[in-house]
Request: fold
Amino acid sequence: MFFASDNWAGAHPAINERLMRESTRFAAAYGTSALDQAIEKRFNEIFERDVAVFFVATGTAANSLALASLAKPGGVAFCHAEAHVIEDECGAPDFFSGMRMSPVDGALGKMDPKQLTSRIARYPQDAVHHGRATAVSMTQATEVGTIYTLDEIEQIARISHDHGLPLHMDGARFANALVQLDATPAEMTWKRGVDVLSFGGTKNGCWCAEAIVFFDPAMAKELPFIRKRSAQLFSKSRFIAAQFEAYLQDDLWLNLASHANSMADRLRGGLAASNSARVAWPTSSNEVFAVIPKDTAKAAQDKGAKFYDWLEPHDMAEPVQGHEQLIRLVTSFATEKEDVDAFLDVIAAG
Ligand SMILES: Cc1ncc(COP(=O)(O)O)c(C=O)c1O
Reply:
């Protein structure tokens, strides 16, 4: 009953097998091997255009270095108030980019377009004292399990571009959002105005594979140097490439994300039908937020269930009562139906 996070899961056997094969041969280092180059090209096919791709180890590195590549002195980058880049990366985006993250409100983890516009207006380009608006970062799927529709992405992109700001997308759970929207990678990104993407693989079956993808390679000129100075240029970069080769082959990545999402559907369905729990807000990716009695949470943990408590957002429709607890449940490519059903049984038993 592992629902703490999708990065608690192991790695998919096809990815492990590819890593094993890679480990038996010699190849050029620092991203110069034929495999690195082939997989960079594979991203062109996935995104239906020429992109510039940089492999890094963590989602935090992908976000931080992507933002660093967009930075200006005195820069301010806008993101949702609960975004991972502002709440959960220990200031790494600020540290690597030299910018400040500025929080934008919005229901259900999505930036409200009006709030974004008024936040940007606080930083006029010529007002040296406040700092200057420089970039926007959105998360897809969001940190609270919701998904921006394609039109919502375009709306955020339009506001960003109207102010001359590039748009970054944190895609730690890119595949989960993609399969849910039934969109192509191009449709969920550059066709709707995304300029730079953090493309996550680790949460969806890789061992450790993340990539920064620039849809206009001209914007990536500084990234090789930014990545090296941030100690993210791996000598054995080909092991990230190998993971992505298996990940992107025969739609494995999409199938794994569909599985994770369907396990979340099963969990949501069971919680919604339960007398001893309620779904905290509607989600549609592989994250489910539930309100359960504190005693039930303790009993579930005693029986081995793993999940995190979650801070109550200020705009929750039905607030958490004193005897209750808000919890986050995350499913993954490795979640099995039996895990979900066992958890639902434990919740039902109280
Ligand atoms: C939305 C989001 N972005 C980025 C990250 C960062 O990933 P990592 O822990 O690999 O740095 C996470 C990890 O939980 C995440 O949930």
Remarks:
- Residues 252-272 form the longest helix (21 residues).
- The chain has a mean pLDDT of 96.
- The pocket of pyridoxal-5'-phosphate is lined by residues 58-60, 63, 84, 139, 143, 170, 172, 202 (CB under 6 Å).
- The CA atoms of residues 123 and 349 lie 54 Å apart.
